[in-house]
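3.2 Worked example (two chains)
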Amino acid sequence: MRSTGPLAVLAASALALTLAGCSGGAGGELTYEDSPLNEYLSAAYGGDLSPEEQQKQFDEQQRKQEDLMAECMAKEGFEYKPNLQNGSVVMADDEDAVKWEPDKKDWVEKYGYGIVNNPYNAEGASTPGEEYVDPNQEYLDSLSESERTAFYETAYGVPPEEDELNEDGSYEYNWEDSGCQGWAQHELQGDDPWQSDEFADLREKMTELWSTSQDAPEYKKLNSRWADCMADGGEPGFTAQTEAQQSISDAQNKLYESAYGDGTTEVDPATVEDPSKSPEMKELGEKEIALALVDLGCREKTNYTQESLKIQFALEEKFIKDNKADLEAFKAAAEQSN
C-alpha cells in the first residue's frame, strides 16, 4: 500500500516556495505536475491515482488500521471502538471544491493570500460539517485519570520529552514508539522505503535540494527583478517573493500570540477576546489584500510562476542526473511495497 506519510508531506511541499501564490498553468504552460522528480516520487505517495481512487484507498486503509488498533488495545486490556472519523481524508469533487485562485485578480481582491480572509474558512462557516463524536468517549469517561493516561500511552505511545524535540517542536517518528496506532500503521504499510536506512543519503540530498533551491543564482536574479517591481509599487523591503506572503502570516501569528501567549503559559480561551474578530486583524486583512495585489502585478510582470518552475525543474533534472541509480532503486522499492 502506498505510504501517505512523511514523503507525501515533503513532496507536496517541495515546490511550496516555487509555487507560493501561484496556481496551475494553461495553454501549454508549466505546472507543478511537470516536475521531473514526480516520476519517482509518485510511486510512493500515490500521485498517479485519481481523487476518487485516493479517497477509496484512504477509507479502506483507515478501516483496516482502526480494526488492527482495536485488536492491539484489547490485547493490552483496553476497550477500543474503531474510530472511522479520526484522520480520514476527504477528496472533494472538482465542482464542489473551494476554488484556490491566487493568480486571479478578482480572487486576490477578496482574499489576498487567503491568510486572514481564508476562502476555506468562509466555506466552512456557510456549510458546517458533521459534528465529531468520539466513539470511545463514554469508555474514557469511565476511567480514572491514571487509567486514561495509560490508555492514551498504549494507543499512541508516550509523548517525547522536551530534550527529544527539535527546535521547531518536531521529532523523529518511530512506529515502535507510537503505541498501537504505530503498530497498526506498520502492519498495513510495512517498512516505508522513504524512511529506510537504504535511502537515508538520498533522503538527505533531496531535502537539501528542496530547502536550498531558492539560493540558486537564477532564483536570486528572478527575485531581484520581482523586488524592484514591488518597491516601485510602494512595497519595498522584500528580497524574495515568498517573504511578502510570509510577512502577513508572521503578523497574524503575533496577533494570536498577544492574545493567547506563546504557549509557555496556560491561558483560558474563555477569558480572551477572539483575535480573529479584532480591529487589528481586520486592518491586517486589508493590508494583506493591498500587498497581495501589488505582488500579483509583479509576478505577472516578471512571469514569476513560469520562470520559477523552469529554474526548479532544471535543478531537478541535474539532481536526477547525479542520483539516477538511487532514484531508480527507490522507485522500484516503493512500487514493490504498494
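3.2.1 Second chain
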Amino acid sequence: MSMIPRFVPFLMLTAAVTAVVPAVVPAVLPAALAAGVLPAPPMPVGGEAPSAAFFDTLRSADLRLATIAYRLTTANAALCDRLQPQVGMPIHALTQYGPDARKGATATFGFESTIGVEAVVAGGPADRAGVRPNDSIVAIDDRPQPGLPSADAPESATARDAAEAVVTEAPVGRPLRLTVLRDGKRLPITITPVTGCRSRFEILLGSGLDASADGAIV
C-alpha cells in the first residue's frame, strides 16, 4: 500500500509555542504511542490492501492527536505571533490513499467527494456546529472543492492541502461556511472558529516511536 504521509490539518503551532513545549511534545507523543494513548495503525503486510481495522485505528490516532493539538494551539494563542482559525476538524482527501487503498478508505470514511471530514474534536467549533465524521466537503466559504477523483487519479495530497489553505487563510474571528454531503444530501453548516496558534501536527506512518518539533510542524 502506498499512502501520502498523514497530516492532522488546521492545527498549527508556532515557534512561540514550541519554545514552551519543544521537550514536551517529542517526549510525550512516543510515550503516548507506547502506552496505547495514540494507537499505532496495524500496517498492511506486503502488497495486501489495508483492512478496516487499519483505517479505524488511523482515524482514532488522528483524532487523539488532533484533540491534543487543538487544546495546545487554542490555550497558547496569547503566546503566538501568527494566528489562524481553529475548528477542531481533521480532514483528508481520498487521493491521499493509493489506488489499492481507496475502496477500503471509501468504505470506512464515506467519501462522497474528494475531501472528507476524518474526525471531529469533541466540544470543538466543528462539533458544536454539527459537523460529523464522514461528512464530505463540497465547498468552504463558497469555494468549491473537487468531486470524486477518477479511478486512476495519482496519489497526492494537493487537494487536501488546498482545502486546508482556505481555512488557514480565513480571517480570524469570522464564521466559516461549509457545504457538506451527508448520505447524498447537501447541507450548509456555519462554524464559529476559535483563534489559535498557526502550526501543523502530523502523523507519519512507520514502525518506530518518535516525535519532533521544528517550530512549524510537530
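3.3 Remarks
The beta strands are 6-8, 83-86, 91-93, 115-117, 136-140, 143-144, 176-182, 185-191, 194-197, 201-203.
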